[in-house]
Design goal:
The protein is of the alpha/beta class. The protein folds into four domains: about 20-35 and about 190-340, Molybdenum Cofactor Biosythetic Enzyme, Chain A (3-Layer(aba) Sandwich); about 40-60 and about 155-185, Molybdopterin biosynthesis moea protein, domain 2; about 65-150, Molybdopterin biosynthesis moea protein, domain 3 (Molybdopterin biosynthesis moeA protein, domain 3, Beta Complex); about 350-420, MoeA, C-terminal, domain IV (Beta-clip). It is built from seven helices and 27 strands. Helix 1 runs parallel beside helix 6, helix 3 (about 215-225) packs parallel to helix 6 and helix 4 crosses helix 5. Magnesium ion binds next to loops.
Length: about 425
């Protein structure tokens, strides 16, 4: 061992529950706090750093929900009354006040003339030929206010439509546009450096030598990061040596807010990440009491020449399902926290188990499951931590508390993958 060999981490690593690990991660990592102003065209998936407040009522005027006739109910003593049509109001036009004793031909989205108190849809009217715009027979009298969308029924002027910390999905972008927001202040993208460790790894396109496997984590983790709006600095595969791992960490730290790796975090002698991170910064190695998953390395790596600022480091296990699940449960909230997102925990749902799971592991388990047509959940047959097919087949994760057997018919907690995007 050279003089530079870093101190070895204590042999006994704390066994943490997922909630304890999350509490430690999220109390340590704070929002980056750097923002940029973007057009809503560019803001999909980004986290708002400033609220969006409306200066206007939406809709800005009472308007018709139907193609039909705007009426004054007082002019309709009975079903079948005939009224002359006094004006025609297409969407985008500005109507005159409704002349007493007449109807206005109106189209969906058009402002309702002052004085009209209902719209009858054209399917309940008959046109009557005559001078000018003719007349209309209102076959059934509409109820007061029928088919009128009221000014401000969606948004009131002065109200906050999107709070800071909101992740902008397509509906939120539409709502921002509804109130006329032409620019949005969002957190800048989190820069994440990604690398995989393992001398057994080959890239698709390369021939597979004996003993080798293709690198799947690179694609899964890169995709998960991209879905969260991160800028990914992909450093590829790093050889299983201390020097190469340290060099990769230095490169990564210079460029990224967070360094994410897969593999090499167990305590086998081929696992160089632990000493490498200890040499380049500091590291906690935890055993999370979850399955799949377990080892999780969390630390920070010094940034060369940048006033003591550090890049966060998270090392995920190498098994493909372990790294996928650990990312969703532990890394996703960290990235959301860096972005300043308000909601970090995924929405879970109580659903019926249509399976038995009697093994009752000591660890909290996250089983890959799928919704069936009867509204229950079914399990993928092979729940091995290397069986990535389970994650493609499944719709989400069943969250099984430690030591809890599940019998068909029990209600379980289900976290859909859609809630983990
Ligand atoms: P490790 O955590 O490095 O001990 O790896 C655990 C298991 O995951 C081993 O079977 C590795 O071959 C496998 N593994 C590690 N990294 C990857 C990867 N990037 N893609 C696919 N499998 C991996
Ligand atoms: Mg390895």
């Amino acid at each position: 061992m050279s003089a530079e060999t870093p101190a070895i981490a204590p042999a006994r690593q704390p066994l943490l529950s997922l909630d304890e690990a999350l509490e430690r991660l999220l109390s340590t990592v704070q929002p980056l706090g750097e923002t940029e102003t973007l057009s809503p065209f560019e803001a999909l998936g980004r986290v708002l750093a400033a609220e969006v407040r409306s200066q206007l009522d939406v809709p800005p005027h009472d308007n018709s929900a139907m193609d039909g006739y705007a009426l004054r109910l007082a002019d309709l003593p009975a079903d079948g009354t005939v009224l002359p049509v006094s004006q025609r109001v297409p969407a985008g036009s500005v109507p005159m006040a409704l002349e007493p004793g007449t109807a206005a031909r109106i189209f969906t989205g058009a402002p309702v003339p002052a004085g009209a108190d209902a719209v009858q849809m054209q399917e309940h009217c008959e046109t009557v030929a005559g001078d000018g715009l003719g007349a209309v027979r209102v076959v059934d009298r509409p109820a007061p206010g029928a088919a009128i969308r009221r000014r401000g029924e969606d948004v009131q002027a002065g109200s906050v439509v999107l709070a800071a910390g909101h992740r902008l999905d397509p509906a939120a972008l539409g709502l921002a546009a509804t109130v006329g927001a032409a620019s949005l202040t969002v957190a800048r993208r989190v820069r994440v450096a990604l690398f995989s460790t393992g001398d057994e790894l080959a890239m698709p396109g390369e021939p597979l030598k004996p003993g080798a496997i293709y690198n799947s984590n690179r694609f899964t983790l890169r995709g998960l990061l991209q879905q969260l709006g991160c800028e990914v600095e992909d450093l590829g595969i790093v050889p299983d040596t201390l020097d190469a791992t340290r060099a990769a960490l230095r490169t990564a730290a210079a460029r990224a807010d967070l360094i994410l790796t897969s593999g090499g975090v167990s305590v086998g002698e081929e696992d160089h990440l632990r000493p490498a991170v200890q040499a380049e910064g500091q590291l906690d190695l935890w055993q999370m009491a979850i399955k799949p998953g377990k080892p999780l390395a969390f630390g920070a790596v010094r940034r060369p020449g940048q006033d003591g600022r550090q890049a966060w480091f998270i090392g995920l296990p190498g098994n493909p399902v372990s790294s996928f699940v650990t990312f969703l449960l532990a890394v996703r909230p960290v990235i959301l926290r860096l972005q300043g997102a308000a909601v970090l925990a995924p929405q879970a749902y109580p659903l019926r188990a249509d399976f038995d799971w009697l093994k009752a592991d000591k660890r909290r388990e996250f089983l890959r499951a799928r919704l069936n047509a009867a509204g229950g959940l079914e399990l993928f047959a092979n729940q091995g931590s290397g069986v990535l097919s389970s994650a493609v087949w499944g719709d989400g994760l069943v969250d099984v508390p430690p030591g809890t057997p599940i019998r068909s018919g029990d209600t379980v907690r289900f976290i859909p993958f859609s809630a983990l995007q």
